[in-house]
Specification:
Structural class: alpha+beta
Shape: rod-shaped
CATH class of one domain: Alpha Beta
Oligomer: single chain
Helix content: 40-55%
Radius of gyration: 53 Å
Number of helices: 8
Order of helices and strands: HEEEEEEHEEHHHHEHH
Largest sheet: 4 strands, antiparallel
Strand content: 15-25%
Length: 321
Amino acid sequence: MRNVTPQEFRVPDKLRQLAVAVLIALLALWFVFSVFTSVPADSVGVLTRFGRFVDLVSPGLRFKLPLGIDVIDVVPVQRQLKLEFGTTTPGGTNPNQSPDDPEAERTIVTGDLNMALIEWIVQFRIEDPKEFRFHVFQPEWTLRDAGESVMREVVGDRTIDEVLTIGRQEIETETLSRLQAVVKRYGLGLSVMQVQLQNVHPPKAVQASFSEVNQAQQEKQQAINLANGEYNKVVPRARGEALRKVSAAEGYAAKRVNEAKGDAGRFNATLAEYVKSPEVTRQRLYLETMQVVLPQLSRKIILDDKAGQIFPLLQLDQKTK
């Protein structure tokens, strides 16, 4: 086998020059990318030099010292972020958004020592980028721990029925208030915007029983609504009938009172005339009474006070056949 001399392995000059040019171009590109960075419009940059805070950088293309001397950390201050508790959304862009153990996080003990499966989200924004980056280590995980702790505290003050039915709005409001106070006390540089319950269920082993209870409560409410509807239909009608009868009775009473007053006035007037002329008044009353009574009689017999025998009158009013 023939030995190869070192001269035969010598790299051509053109190839060596090309390699050097490529290396210089790569170094130039690395230098350009290391001294310039872009900050998105919805964010600000936290500029640090040798790890010490220097300034906040506004959006746009910004210059920084190379070789890791300056570092610009992009913080999305205009974006509304969220943390999910007890559930996981596939494809989330925020690595801190979803919990490591959703099952353990959603299981919460209520005040009457029952268990509830609660899923909720916390929506927040970064309010102070400097405080967010330097005051607390991993502020989003601190917010997650604080959110879980506050939710367990709030739910632990209520019964399972309140948690599953009427207490959801109150739980959200109280959790938001307490969590905002904790975030402010810890100095996380965050502003909590909303706490929203997603799904609230009893444990799977007793979900069927709770469903039956809820169905019974719904049927109870339906029966109450039907009874109220019937009440609203019958009671106004009865009240109207009562008012009608009361009005009729008052009208009848007024009529009888007026008639009585008229009769009394007429009697008084007659009495006054009788006092003046007793014989004339007595005769007039007799005649007026006869005018009323006689037309109502079917057979008429006229007697003299000296008559000893009654003779029927001829039926002069009948037509001759």
